[in-house]
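Archive entry. Fields below.
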Amino acid sequence: MERTLASAPVIEFRDVAYVLPNGKPLLLELNLEVQRGETLVLLGRSGSGKTTTLKLINRLLAPSGGEVRVNGSSTVEANVIRLRRSIGYVIQDVGLFPHFTVERNIGLVPRIEGWEAPRIHNRVEELLQLVGLEAKIGERYPHQLSGGQRQRVGVARALAADPAILLMDEPFGALDALTRDELQREFLSLKQRLSKTVVFVTHDLREALRLGSRIALMEAGRLVTVLPPEGFVRSDDRLVAAYVRAFADGCELVAQRGSL
Amino acid sequence: MNLLHFFMENRGQILELSLEHLWLVGISTLIAVLIGIPLGILSARWPVWNRPVLGTANIIQTIPSLALFGFLLPVPWIGERADRLAILALTLYALLPVIRNTYTGIRSVDPAVIEAGRGMGLTGRQLLLQVELPLALSVILSGVRVAVVISVGLATIAAAIGAGGLGEFIFRGLAMVNNQLILAGAIPAAVLALSADFGLGWLEKRMRPR
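PREDICTED_STRUCTURE:
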């Protein structure tokens, strides 16, 4: 019994299509399962359908065909507000509420869920610590933070009501290389401490290899393949190989320049 | 010195007409805000409403004020009393800036903020009341400010239909070719407009999100 429960996928895409009202398909025939506790990375270039796939999970978009199931029930039938509150959502532009302090930003979902003020306060402090920020940051406003701090607050806010699933849409894409590296490292250690199921969108192969338990490569609205990182770099699939080569070329270039 | 003397002598009436003027402007602005903000929200949320709502408000704005007072005269209940008529006309003129700024204010909230809010599971109502309206507040206030300044000027014309206000002095002065009388209406009206502009401008700045 325990075992079947543990092995049931947390998120399932069954023949999912998403077509814009003007008839342009963004996603076709998507079949994909996300297992409990894994970090599934959606990798692909701009317009490949990664973000669309992500938004279908918390029903910011509804599928035009097929079915998306979260914890066994279809997202179309579920109470959409309950569904979204049970899923953390982090985006590249963070989207912190500029008129709220950091504390209020992080505590918003707990507050509308009716938590008592002291409990929210403790939770915010705990989360700030978890994402590596000092407690006094709680009193600041978003415009007083650096890019890296803002994204940390974004992650803390997504974790506030302790969701089992976390969706991250290029969360570190707008950060400088050093901050990105730091946040990736912290993501990995967070991931170890909290057993969340994560779906992570990126176009950066390096980030995908570093963070993902499995990597799903997407191209032009279709899923090309899903592979663990070790398999990904060795795959002889044409598209995967092209992706890996482009990345390897970059590394080589760096090596060459280093030797000059 | 003559003018100052005139002002001192008639200060009672100037004050009375100024208060009447303020009352016309205040009530009509209040009604315009109560109607205009919901209409602005409506057109920002459901784009189908955008054209009819803003279009109508735009057309009203183009009707010359004296003509509008004339049009409204035969309307039952409204036409019975000059102050009702004046308030309705001023309300109609004040609608456009209020609706337009509510619409613009909500529409210009950072899309990432809206997406994050929706993704976190805020209901449409929570998103509107806790995020969109607070962030749009300073833009909405600047619309109210424009509406008030326009109304203070337009309300002087209300005297033409006998609704009172500082226009009384102006029309009387025009009829009697008496500049002092005209100024007794025009100066307090200008002072009212400027102080409303300043006061609301100050409020608007304080409400501006960082």
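CURATOR_NOTE: Chain A is about 40% helix and 25% strand.
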